[in-house]
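Query structure, 222 tokens:
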């Protein structure tokens, strides 16, 4: 059977539609593909955060000893300082794995410099980064409003509570578990969620994030 001119036109239209759909699929996938600038920026965030983590660790005991003496578990209010790397990385890079990567890099850097928690720092970093990562994933890496950042802080705080209660405070009684978990989550919301979102907006305002969606979004709001 010979194809008519109309048949050829219909076939061409069908093929074009298929190609357009494939192109759309490639575009969707490309949105989540890591660029070199993403890797470099996430690494810089991780290294800088790792230095802060290390300094935070030096101040931890002097600051939290009075808190835990006043009410055991209250030291969790200081824990958010170890959670911001993943949230900030996720807010800026906006790609799958960004929160986990930046938090883990920060943990590695602080461990290499030297912390009182040794190799367990790496496990904590991975779990805490995963806590924030899960929240960004639940929103399909498409929403980075302030309340999503706060929820990422909650996720990181829950993850920290799980690792700390398992590794550092095994066998703790129920009041301690509840107080430590609650204060860690509150700290995650404020120090990791809110401050990371404000930091992202502040950095974007300088023009340093012009190659990122976070920077373009900031300019659009001005």
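Result returned for the query:
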């Amino acid at each position: 059977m010979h194809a008519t001119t109309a048949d050829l036109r219909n076939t061409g239209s069908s093929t074009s539609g298929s190609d357009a759909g494939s192109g759309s699929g490639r575009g969707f996938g490309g949105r989540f593909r890591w660029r070199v600038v993403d890797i470099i920026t996430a690494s810089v965030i991780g290294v800088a955060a790792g230095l802060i983590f290390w300094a935070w660790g030096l101040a931890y005991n002097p600051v939290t000893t009075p808190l835990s003496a006043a009410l055991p578990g209250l030291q969790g209010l200081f824990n958010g300082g170890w959670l911001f790397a993943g949230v900030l990385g996720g807010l800026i890079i906006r790609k799958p794995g960004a929160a986990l990567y930046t938090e883990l890099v920060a943990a590695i850097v602080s461990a290499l410099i030297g912390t009182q928690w040794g190799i367990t720092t790496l496990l904590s970093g991975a779990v805490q980064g995963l806590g924030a990562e899960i929240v960004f994933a639940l929103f399909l890496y498409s929403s980075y409003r302030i309340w999503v950042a706060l929820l990422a802080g909650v996720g990181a705080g829950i993850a920290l509570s799980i690792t700390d209660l398992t590794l550092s405070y095994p066998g703790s009684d129920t009041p301690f578990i509840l107080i430590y978990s609650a204060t860690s989550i509150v700290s995650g919301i404020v120090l990791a969620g809110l401050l990371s979102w404000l930091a992202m907006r502040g950095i974007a305002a300088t023009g340093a994030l012009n190659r990122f969606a976070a920077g373009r979004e900031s300019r659009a709001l001005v």
